[in-house]
Design goal:
The protein is mainly alpha-helical. The protein contains 7 helices and 5 strands; from the N terminus they run αααββααβααββ. The strands form 2 sheets. The protein has a 3-stranded antiparallel sheet. The protein has a two-stranded antiparallel ribbon with strand order 1-2. α1 packs antiparallel against α2 and α1 packs parallel to α3.
């Protein structure tokens, strides 16, 4: 009986030990599975972060490449424009140094464009960076503008020289009417001398501040100091046509005294002549739309054939004698005409 009982205890104890071991194994397995899932989740998060960082890096690289490519294209276009300017201005500037500077910058730009890989995703600094390429384009544009301005100055000087070459040695003087005293044909102007103004460099387009691109010189005359007579392009073109008709009628070109008047000259005239001169900033001459013929009463004064013809025919070309400047106007000026289009 005792032996049987002992056997039962042994068997029962072994079974309990087995059951406890099985539970421990199961718990350990579940913990291991949980840890593995946690590790997998962490790995997935790391992979996601890596993927996001890689995408951000790719986007940044693509942006760098795009910006560089755009800057390279701007520099290449500036070089092409500069080459055209070099071709246009060859032998047509007073000092070729401006062209030499432009040519040097063109060569540098060509080399930089050729050496720059527009698709490269690295190198945000240095000579091939977008910043450097844009700076090169800006330098080219400035040099191009300087060469163009020098060319325009050369053209104006050539036009003035050509006009001076064909200018009559002496302007024709009309005979005074029978019985009129010769001194009456002298100028009616008694103030200090004033001259037509050149274009206002850097002008903002306001009255008396017209930039060179707003004005054109007439072809047949310059003032006593050699300055071309400037008007707006439309007014100058109309005056060229009017002068052709005037020359056909009278056998000589229309004589001029003043055209464009810059702001500083308006100030000086107001100070010298008082209210007879327009308030600075309001003169029609400051708009490039007015001219004065010489104040010679026997050539262009009241009732002369020349003035009568201009008053009658000028409007067909857009040029009129304003009412205020008429014989009975508020400020009679037989010499003044304005372009109305």
């Amino acid at each position: 009986m005792v032996a049987v009982t002992a056997a039962v205890l042994v068997v029962g104890g072994a079974g309990g030990a087995w059951a406890w071991t099985e539970r421990e194994d199961r718990v350990a397995a579940e913990q291991a599975a949980t840890q593995e899932r946690a590790a997998d989740a962490l790995d997935a998060q790391v992979r996601d972060v890596d993927a996001i960082q890689a995408q951000a890096a790719d986007a940044a690289a693509a942006h760098v490449a795009t910006v560089r490519s755009d800057a390279r294209a701007v520099l290449a276009a500036a070089a092409e424009d500069a080459r055209a300017t070099l071709a246009t201005t060859e032998g047509k500037v007073a000092d070729d140094a401006v062209r030499q500077t432009l040519a040097t910058l063109v060569a540098e730009a060509d080399a930089r464009v050729a050496a720059t890989d527009p698709a490269a995703a690295t190198g945000t600094t240095g000579p091939h960076s977008a910043t450097a390429l844009r700076a090169g384009a800006a330098a080219l544009a400035a040099a191009d503008a300087a060469a163009t301005a020098a060319h325009e100055t050369w053209l104006q000087a050539e036009a003035a020289a050509a006009a001076a070459a064909v200018r009559p040695a002496a302007k024709p003087t009309a005979r005074p009417a029978t019985g009129a005293a010769a001194p009456s044909c002298g100028t009616t102007y008694t103030g200090p001398p004033f001259y037509t103004s050149p274009a206002t460099a850097g002008g903002d387009g306001s009255n008396g501040k017209l930039p060179p691109e707003s004005l054109s010189a007439i072809s047949w005359d310059v003032d006593p100091r050699g300055t071309p007579y400037y008007l707006t392009t439309a007014a100058a073109g109309a005056l060229e046509r009017l002068n052709a008709a005037f020359r056909a009628q009278f056998g000589h070109n229309l004589d001029l005294d003043l055209t464009y008047r810059d702001y500083d000259t308006q100030v000086a005239m107001r100070a010298a002549l008082g209210s007879v001169a327009a308030k600075p900033g309001t003169s029609s001459h400051g708009t490039g739309l007015a001219l004065d013929v010489p104040e010679l009463p026997c050539e262009y004064g009241w009732d002369t054939p020349q003035r009568d013809w201009l008053v009658a025919n000028g409007p067909a070309y857009g040029w009129v004698s304003p009412s205020w400047a008429g014989r009975n106007g508020s400020n009679p000026e037989y010499w003044h005409f304005e372009y109305r289009g």
